[in-house]
Each structure stands twice: as structure tokens, then as C-alpha cells.
Amino acid sequence: MSDATESGVPTNQDRVGTVAIVAGTAVSALSVYLYQVIAARTLGSELFASIGVMWTISFLVFTVLNIPVEQYVTRRLTLGGGRWLPDRDAILIVATPLLAGIVIGAVFVAATLDRFFAGSSGFVVAAVAILISRGLLTVGRAFLAGRRRFTAYGAIVALEGVVLVALAIGVAATSASALAFVAILAISPLVVVLARPLATTTTEMPMLADSIPAGAGFLGALIVATAASQIILAAEPVIVSFVGGTATAVSVVFVTFTLFRGPVTSAYNLIARVLPDFTVMASAGDDHRLKVWAERIGIAGVALAALFGAGGWVLGPIVVEVLYGAEFAPPSVVSGLAAAAVGFALASLFLNQIFVARGETGRLAVIWLLALLAATVALFVSTAEPMIRVATAFLVGEAAALALLVGVSVFAHRRRA
Per-residue DSSP letters for 147-162? Predict the structure, then answer.
């Protein structure tokens, strides 16, 4: 993939930025694992369950509502040559999902205090603080990506992870409580202010044509698509409880799925590098290149699913036990199914960007709703124990999504040709 300059020739700045994002993503992924290992080994499986649920809530809000906002702003800035012209409608489009996420997260935590959080109201306050800070992170990252400040983007991603681990070590050594481990999740995202993302940039970028208006309907459909995809990807720790799993099962599913989901979680940083280039291709009407990328990504997804699945089946329980302790080790079938699903999910995340770049978020929403339906049917048809049920549903949903994303991308191109 070439960098999205007007001439199509990669610049040194973009090359350095790409390396920075990849390096920052690696640091971030390792930091997430270290944070969870520190918390799990400090608290044990019972107390760690509240962290698993809080992490899941904040992750779902961030990926369902905040990431679409980041994509919307990134695409808008890319098409506008890095300029954000005063527009009250656009500001409202951005602010509404961010505020909704704060409210939804706080209400969910308040409603489940006794079930997941030992009745402590401090978790509600922590949830609000976490979602506010991650909202600020969302806007900051979007401006960095949309203005092709990829080096700064990568640095912020890395620094956020380093700060999180440092705070976790401090909590483990002093006030080792579940609430303290949760509270520090609100601090690390604030490092984004160090990059001054809203500062005026002197880098010149060309204005691009946009044949599809990207307003509230664009973002609304993208949020629907993302919501369906994230329910499939990340809701398992909550779902396993509602289908009969114990608190220990919640912790096992959380650490296992989060561990294997690491490549997808990390890839949210990488799509900030991909979306601007896909947007340039879509703006230029280069459907052939987008089709080629869709086919390549689809093939890679199938290969990754096979590789990850085999590795997860054989090594998954061993790796989880080494990192978190024997009480967190999952059955081999659960880790194998979850790892294979991650291979499909990783490819699907990048395929999503083709639809976003083209402005086809309505079509993307339909695809992910169909995939969610497939996962739901698999969940309720299965008569296995709770952890296997959610792992099976995860795999079915991700496989269905990948097949639909590739099929629609290729079909759409042929119909236009």
C-alpha cells in the first residue's frame, strides 16, 4: 500500500510514522498484558472478575462508539486536507456518541453493582472518569491520524501503555484493591494532551473529493456495524455469566479472550494508518485496488484463523496458566475456538476500513448484523457448557462476517466495473 500523498509516492515522514505506529502498538499490547497479569496475580480470580467486567464495558464503549468517531474525524480530516472547518453539525455528530458512551457505561455499572462490583459505588465514579478520558483520547488520536501525524500517534499509544503499567505496579505495591486497579484506567489515556493534537499543523495536504456525504447517517450506520461486531468480539465475559457461568468462569473467559484478542485490540491503532490511504483510493475511484486488497485480506484471515486455532488449542491453556496462574487456565477447546475466531476478526477489522473509506457504512451495518445473528443462533443452539458455548458463537460470528465482507467487496466492484 502506498502512502496517501497527492503524487502517490511514499514520504520519509510517512515511513517513519508507520514504524512508530507499529512500535507503539507493540508496546501498548505488551502493556495491556502486563497490567492484567499484575492485577490478576495480585487479586486472584474472584476479585479480578470486577476488573474483567469493567475492562469489557470500557472496551465495548470505546470500540462501539469512540472508534467510529475516530474514523469519522480521521476520514473528514483526510478529505479536507487536514483542515477542520467550523461546523456545529459535525461537532454535534462527534459529541453525541461520546456522551452517550459515558451515560451507558455509568448506567450499566450502577445497575450491576451487586452482581459484578460488590456493591461499591466507587466503580460508577471510576467508570465515568475512564470513559471521559477515553473520549479525549479518541478526539486526540483522530486529529493526529487525520493530519498524518503518525509518529506522534505511535508515541502516544506507547506512552499510554507505559503509564498504565507503572500505575499498576504502584497499586500492587500499595493499595491492592480491585477499585484501585480500575481507577488507574482513567489516567493513562490523558497522555494524549502531550501531543497537542488540536494544534494547527503546517503540513500541506491536498483536498479530496467525497461523493458520499458523511454526516449523522454515515456515523450512525458505522456505530451500528461496530456495535454488532464488538458484541461478537468482546462481550463474552458478560455473556458467559448470563448463560450460567460462575465468577471464575467470567475471569477465565476474560483473560483468555483478552489475551488472544490482543492482535485485534492492537490493530485499532494500525487502522489509523490504513484508513487515510483507503480513503484516497476511494476518493479517486480506484475500486480495482480496493478489490485486490479485500481479496488479499480475506485470504490472510483464513490462514490466520487456521494458524491461531491450532496454536490456541495446543499452547493456549499453557500460556494462560504461566501468565495468570492455574486457576485461570481454559479448556483447550475454548482457547482453540477463541484463537481461531481472532484470526477472522483481525482480517475483518481491516476489511471494515474499505467500507468506511467508500462511505458504505449502511452496507457494513447489514453485514455485521447478519454476523451477529449467526453468532446468536450458534449460542442458543449449542448445549455445551457456558465457556464452550460463547467460544463457538464467537467463531461462527467472525467467520460469517469475514465471508460477507469479502463477498460484498468483490461483488460491489464487479457491479461498478
Answer: TT-HHHHHHHHHHHHH
Spatial distance between the Cα atoms of 358 and 224, rounded to a whole number of angstroms: 17
**Rounded-to-10 torsion of CA 45, 50, 51, 54:** 150
**Is 221 among the domain residues?**
yes
Consecutive H or E run containing 289 = helix 287-324
Radius of gyration for the alpha carbons in the chain, expressed in angstroms and rounded: 21
For 151, 265, 281, the CA distances from 414, given in Å and listed in that order, are 37, 32, 16
| Residue 192 resides in a domain | yes
C-beta atoms surrounding 59 within 10 Å:
19
DSSP one-letter code for 392: H
Q: Say how far apart CA 138 and CA 66 lie, in whole Å.
A: 6
Using a 10 angstrom Cβ sphere, with 0-12 exposed, 13-18 middle and 19 or more buried, the burial of residue 351 is: buried
Note whether 184 and 39 are within 8 A (CB).
no
Sorted by sequence, the CB contacts under 8 Å of residue 225 that are 6+ apart come out as 352, 355, 361, 364, 365, 367, 368, 369
3-class SS at 118? coil
Cβ neighbours, 10 Å, residue 290: 22
Q: Output the nine-digit C-alpha cell for 116.
A: 459484578
- Parent domain of 226: 12-416
Is residue 354 in a domain? yes
Q: How many CB atoms lie within 10 A of CB 141?
A: 29
DSSP string, 17-74: HHHHHHHHHHHHHHHHHHHHHHHHHHHHHHHHHHHHHHHHHHHHHIIIIIHHHHHHHH
**Residues 162-213: tens digit of each pLDDT:** 999 999 999 998 877 888 998 899 999 999 999 888 876 655 565 555 545 5
Rounded Cα gap, residues 401 and 355, in angstroms:
13
For residue 341, being part of any structural domain is answered with yes
Pull the grid cell for residue 223.
Answer: 456505530
Domain count, the chain: 1
Q: Evaluate whether 23 touches 30 at the Cβ level (below 8 Å).
A: no
| pLDDT tens sequence across 267-313 | 777 777 788 888 888 877 778 888 989 999 999 999 999 999 999 99
